[in-house]
Amino acid sequence: MSNKEQEKTTEQDGIREETVSNDNTPETGEHKELTIEEQLEEAKNEIERLKTQQLYKQAEFDNYRKRVIGEKADLILNGGQKVLEAMLPVVDDLERALANMDSAEDVAAVREGVDLINKKFLNVLKSQGVTPIDTTNADFNTDLHEAIAQLPAPNEEMKGKIMDCTEKGYMINDKVLRYAKVVVCI
């Protein structure tokens, strides 16, 4: 026990009563004696204070959880907004190209316009972290490629290599978005 608290035990009418001496006013040195009932009342008050504090923390956590769920739902609904906004100029260019195709007489000019739109679209994809999977003279890799056909290799060096790519594959930030569909030499 500390110097501030001293336990005293007294017997009155056959009931054991404990008192604790608390120094509530250290400047004057006065001591206040707390009975068991007073200690019990203080303990009950402390319990009520802790219960209230716990309820506030629980309510705060529930509000946090609801806010996070709402933010996740918003991300799911509007997560692609940035990508779609970046693609809108490409769509506009495609619509202009389609409108001009009927009246265009120079096929080379139309082709050049479509090539420019394709490059613009690929740049939009690249700005979003999407890159094509290279299959030119590459070894077959099941982590990047999907074999849709197998052909006999014309020579030993071509075994396990990709002979042809029928559908380009793409990656987004080092994760496969779509596997490249390839023909493999066996």
Output the keywords.
three-stranded antiparallel beta sheet; Nucleotide Exchange Factor Grpe, Chain A, domain 2; 9 strands; alpha+beta; 46% helix; 27% strand; disordered N terminus; 186 residues
Q: What's the topology here?
A:
Blueprint: E1 7-12, E2 15-25, E3 30-34, H1 36-78, H2 81-101, H3 107-127, E4 130-132, E5 145-151, E6 162-167, E7 170-172, E8 175-178, E9 180-185
Parallel strand pairs: 5-9
Antiparallel strand pairs: 1-2, 2-3, 4-7, 6-9, 7-8
Helix pairs in contact: 2-3
Question: Could you explain how this protein is built, in words?
Answer:
The chain is built from three helices and nine strands. It has about 190 residues and is α+β, with helices and mostly antiparallel strands. Among the domains are: about 80-130; about 130-185, Nucleotide Exchange Factor Grpe, Chain A, domain 2 (Roll), CATH 2.30.22. It has a three-stranded antiparallel beta sheet. It has a three-stranded antiparallel beta sheet with strand order 4-7-8. The termini are far apart.
**Total strands:** 9
Identify the CATH homologous superfamily of the domain at 131-186: Head domain of nucleotide exchange factor GrpE
Q: Give the overall shape.
A: elongated
Please count the helical segments: 3
What CATH calls the topology of the domain at 131-186 is: Nucleotide Exchange Factor Grpe, Chain A, domain 2
From the N-terminal CA to the C-terminal CA, the straight-line distance is 86 Å
- Major sheet size, sense and barrel closure: 3 strands, antiparallel
Q: Please trace the helix and strand order, writing H or E for each element.
A: EEEHHHEEEEEE
Mean pLDDT: 85
Share of residues in helices: 40-55%
Share in β-strands: 25-35%
Placed side by side, the strands forming the largest sheet appear as 1-2-3
Q: What is the CATH architecture descriptor of the domain at 131-186?
A: Roll
Low-confidence stretches: 1-26
Query: What top-tier CATH class of the domain at 131-186 fits best?
Result: Mainly Beta
